[in-house]
Amino acid sequence: MKKIILFFCFISLSFSAFSQDLNWAQNFFLGNLNCDKGQHKEALTYYNKAIELLGNDLNQFELLEIYFERANCKVHLKDSYGALKDYNKIIPYYEKILPNGLSIQGAYYTRGLIKIDLNDQFGGCKDLSISGEKGFMDAYDAIQKYCN
């Protein structure tokens, strides 16, 4: 019986130590996993840790993707200003690194909807237009709904 208890204690300590030593990619993965499960507050914790581990060099594509997913998570939490801040931070770098990728299309689209929700109709419609020009076809439906 003592051996079984010691074994479970060892396993518990191993998992506890492991969870504190996750690298940025593992934190990003767990953030995505939690966000997909609707556990947005938990996801933010993992995204924040991944950002902390990667540093501040926004020329890293991985860091842009973490900020993008964190912004999307903030949208689910109704943190419009927090999401807007993240989108504002990453869009200029996406323009340099991957100007027509899906992430920038989605960033402009969602930032546009947030701006409209925050009563910046002109800025929001401009972002929706850019999103559409970059290939995000849903943007045109949003333009019809909010901008005409």
Sheet-strand content, in percent, reads: under 5%
Radius of gyration: 19 Å
Low-confidence stretches: 1-19
Number of strands: 0
> In the residues, how many domains can be counted?
2
Mean pLDDT: 88
- What is the CATH superfamily classification of the largest domain? Tetratricopeptide repeat domain
Helix count? 8
Q: How many strands, what sense, and barrel or not for the largest sheet?
A: none
Structural class, please?
Answer: mainly alpha
User: Which fold name is given in CATH as the topology of the largest domain?
Assistant: Serine Threonine Protein Phosphatase 5, Tetratricopeptide repeat
CATH architecture call of the largest domain:
Alpha Horseshoe
Report on the structure:
- The protein has 148 residues and is mainly α.
- The protein folds into two domains: 23-94, Serine Threonine Protein Phosphatase 5, Tetratricopeptide repeat, CATH 1.25.40.10; 99-148.
- 80% of the residues lie in helices and 0% in strands.
- The protein is built from eight helices and no strands.
- It has helices at 2-20, 24-36, 40-54, 61-76, 80-97, 102-117, 121-133, 138-146.
- The radius of gyration is 19 Å and the shape is globular.
- The model is unreliable at 1-19 (pLDDT under 50).
